[in-house]
Amino acid sequence: MRNRSIISWNALITSFSQHGNEVAAVQLFDLMQEEGVCPDDYTFVGLLSSCSRMGLVAEGCEYFKQMKSKYNLEPKMAHYTCMVDLFARAGRFSDAMEFIDAMPCQPDQLVWEALLASCRIHGNVELGRIAAKKILEIKPEDPSPYIILSSIHASVDMWDEKAWNCMVFDTQRARKDTGSSWIDAQECSENIFDTLQVGVR
């Protein structure tokens, strides 16, 4: 393809990133620069996502810095989400929380979901609870934080979490799936696995 535009480059980088060929995505970014094409916001979403999946924390941090210093691009929420995922997926939860605290804007649901997903991978109960509470503050009807926390608790053999469940259910409601009834906060005496009817095998 001659005279490839930024749209073409972004489509290729994103496609490779989303389909498990992160190395090719990074190589395309380098090739794009060699051809004199300036990256944009979408380019860096694919690039940072690739770094996250490959565990390239240092490289991802450098690309993130280059957004402003080299390309004069202001990071958006999607880029902040990628960076949280980059740190947390690598198990660097302190860096992830420091990054969130330093964000110039209020983190949205996707930022906390990225953190919660990595807490599930690494069995980080404490931060998992924090992330789940933040998600529920933004979207109280979302049942996924309860389900993911159930998985985290089970992975570290924490079967009796009634006290924490009461604290959460005191202010939040959840439903398991479409068509199910709302779970009232007063029913918090039930274990989270019984309440959500989530079996752990």
TrEMBL record:
Ranges of the PPR repeats in the UniProt entry: 5-39
Gene3D superfamilies reported for this sequence: Tetratricopeptide repeat domain
GO BP terms: RNA modification
Keywords: Repeat, Transit peptide
Superkingdom of the source species: Eukaryota
Coiled coil region boundaries: none
GO MF terms, alphabetically ordered: RNA binding
Protein name as it appears in the record: Pentatricopeptide repeat-containing protein
Source organism per UniProt: Arundo donax (Giant reed)
Upper taxonomic lineage: Eukaryota, Viridiplantae, Streptophyta, Embryophyta, Tracheophyta
